[in-house]
Amino acid sequence: MEHIQNAARRTKSVIANHKIFFVLLVVFQIFVLVSFMFVTVHYQIAMVTDARGIIETVQNANYEQTSLEAGQPFLQDISSVTTLYSSIKHNALLFGLWFVVIFLTFQAIVWLLSHILLQKTIHQKTSFKDTFQNIIRLWIKYAASSLIFFLLCFSMIYVFFGNILFRDPASISGTISVAGVVVLVLYYILFVACTLISTSSWKTFARTLWVVAIKKIYITLPVMLITIGVLGLILYGTSLIMQMETYFSVVLLGIFMFILAVVISRLFIIALVQGFIKK
Question: How would you write the pLDDT of the chain (279 residues) with one tens digit per residue?
């Protein structure tokens, strides 16, 4: 409880003492969410359109046994199905690549600004060289952790989809559930790693990651789950507002409150984890 109270006080203090810096952080968070939404919607529409084309072609296929036995093709234009399938794979690849690019650039800026806001150096005058070196040091740890996460996730997806045609259909649902749990575990470790990128060395980074993510999981995980639950309630309330025929300004206010809660929650969790390190 002491860790949580200290983290809450520290978060409140840095926001109150650095309002302009905090506003900048909120602006970048808005930009990140808009970028993720744009990429997701764009490529999902493209993939759904291609999938519909394949379904329509298959629905219009030749299912008559006599004509098939006579040598008539099952599909009149199988090349169109192949083209659409290749398009789905291409768009899925581009979606994944853009997601990683946004995560390593714009999302990285949000994490770096959050750490800088909580660092004591923000109260001191430092040279451009020292500031730049500090930013690079933070980003390298962030990028390395993120790339390991994406590499493990993409490898698991590749193996799963590479063998899905040879699996029992009854076991596919269970496999998807297991894969989802693994991704959540990996993301939990990634999130904790992102809160530790301000550590002084790689050795300290690895040691504290083990301590905070594993040894103190009884504190870290419940706090994160409660935070996610609060954010989920805010998001649910925002969705209810959006479903109601109300003023557009009220909808924007609800979305803004959710983004604000995301930014504050990230600062709070970083401060909480840094409190573990100091103990």
Answer: 677 788 888 888 888 888 888 999 999 999 999 999 999 999 888 888 887 777 766 666 555 566 555 555 555 666 666 777 788 888 888 988 998 999 999 999 999 999 988 876 445 566 667 777 888 889 999 999 999 999 988 887 777 665 554 455 556 666 777 778 888 899 999 999 999 998 878 888 888 889 888 888 888 888 888 888 888 888 787 777 766 656 667 777 778 888 898 999 899 988 888 877 765
Number of domains in the chain: 1
pTM of this prediction? 0.81
Q: What is the 3-state secondary structure (H, E, C) of the chain?
A: CHHHHHHHHHHHHHHHHCHHHHHHHHHHHHHHHHHHHHHHHHHHHHHHHHHHHHHHHHHCCCCCHHHHHCCCCCCCCHHHHHHHHHHHHHHHHHHHHHHHHHHHCHHHHHHHHHHHHHCHHHHCCCCHHHHHHHHHHHHHHHHHHHHHHHHHHHHHHHHHHHHHHHCCHHHHHHHHHHHHHHHHHHHHHHHHHHHCCCCCCHHHHHHHHHHHHHHCHHHHHHHHHHHHHHHHHHHHHHHHHHHCCCCHHHHHHHHHHHHHHHHHHHHHHHHHHHHHHHC
| Enclosing domain of residue 37 | 2-60+75-278
Residue 29 belongs to a domain: yes
Position 42 in a domain:
yes
Residue 66 inside a domain? The answer is no
